[in-house]
Specification:
QueA-like; nine-stranded mixed sheet; Thrombin, subunit H; QueA_sf; globular; 9 helices; six-stranded antiparallel sheet; 17 strands
């Protein structure tokens, strides 16, 4: 499909620079395939679902993956993208056109990386020097990797270290938050449990590629970056049983959805999964394991707006987004939510 089919005008003042407080006070647009859109709150989620449904969360934890350094006198920005092994990461390098393999980028006085290899997409393999665990080096030298549409308008600060982390975050490795889950609080989870709505966890380490613009004119020409994910056998078994018993699987965030669909076989059975996925979901895709999605509002022409259009239909989502814009919903990572039930 042509990428310009997924374009729309978004006023810049609709981009949220801070999250709602408390988190579950955010607005939620309910888009049901059979009914008009309904304006609700995230706190209404228990009544918007039904007993037996399962919410599926991503338990990845965002690391301080944004680094500012120098190669000689040149200033470079580094955004880690995907871990390759204990000391090596694939990364995007800003102002790195003159960077050459074998050169070192220094971040302060005691953190440095060696540029090993440049890839066709412009990213680099970077190896952290020394023996100290990379996680400790990042805590000293890195900052939270806020999305570019926020970072361009304000500087990341100490509040982002907690704001840009979900309450489920337990497995280090993401360089972007699974932002739909930012809306959840212990009080909301208690209400969901009282309503008979279960929850499950899986892991997808979100990469910086999630923010890359689609530069191709046709979706067939766009290449997704791979991300590592895992669903263990016990979780897959519980999800399959919940569905067999009549429950719906509602993914919280596009990251959970993409991993679940990657793990599904042709019959719609969720299999244990561990490895990379570069799944790209556009209209015409046949969903096999997902019955609904809770997600934030996405960028024009983005792979994520293409995904929600595949789930609900392009015209339906264009109308829903037009309603959200006219009704002053807050967009993107720190913005409001939508609940999509095809």
């Amino acid at each position: 499909m042509r990428v310009d089919h997924f374009d729309f005008e978004l006023p810049t003042d609709r981009i949220a620079l801070r999250p709602a407080r408390p988190r579950d006070s955010a607005r939620m647009l309910v888009v049901d395939g059979r009914s008009p859109v309904v304006d609700r709150s995230v706190r209404d989620l228990p009544s918007a679902l039904r007993a037996g449904d399962v919410l599926i969360f991503n338990d990845t934890r965002v690391i301080p993956a944004q680094l500012e350094g120098r190669r000689g006198q040149a200033r470079l920005g580094v955004t880690l993208h995907k871990r390759l092994d204990l000391r090596r990461w694939q990364a995007f390098v800003r102002n790195g056109r003159r960077l050459r393999a074998g050169e070192t980028i220094a971040f302060g006085n005691d953190v440095a990386v060696l540029a090993e290899e440049r890839h066709p997409d412009g990213s680099w393999t970077l190896a952290f020097a020394g023996d100290e665990p990379v996680e400790l080096l990042l805590e000293r030298a890195g900052t939270m990797p806020l999305p570019p549409y926020i970072a361009a308008r304000r500087t990341p600060d100490e509040a982002d270290r907690t704001d840009y982390q979900t309450m489920f975050a337990s497995r280090d490795g993401a360089v972007a938050a699974p932002t739909a889950a930012l809306h959840f609080t212990p009080e909301l989870l208690a209400s969901l449990e009282a309503a008979g709505i279960a929850r499950e966890l899986l892991t997808l380490h979100v990469g910086a590629g999630t923010f890359l613009p689609v530069k191709a004119d046709d979706t067939n020409d766009h290449v997704m970056h791979a991300e590592w994910g895992r669903i263990d056998a016990a979780t897959a078994e519980r999800l399959n049983k919940a569905r067999q018993d009549g429950g719906r699987l509602i993914c919280v965030g596009t990251t959970s959805l993409r991993l679940l669909e990657s793990a599904c076989d042709e019959a719609g059975t969720i299999q244990p999964f561990e490895g990379d996925t570069a799944i790209f979901i556009t209209p015409g895709y046949r969903f096999r394991g997902v019955d609904g999605l809770m997600t934030n509002f996405h960028l024009p022409r983005s792979t994520l707006f293409m995904l929600v259009s595949a789930l609900m239909g392009l015209e339906r989502m264009q109308a829903a987004y037009a309603h959200a814009i006219a009704s002053d919903y807050r967009f993107y990572s720190y913005g409001d939510a939508s609940l999509l039930i095809p």
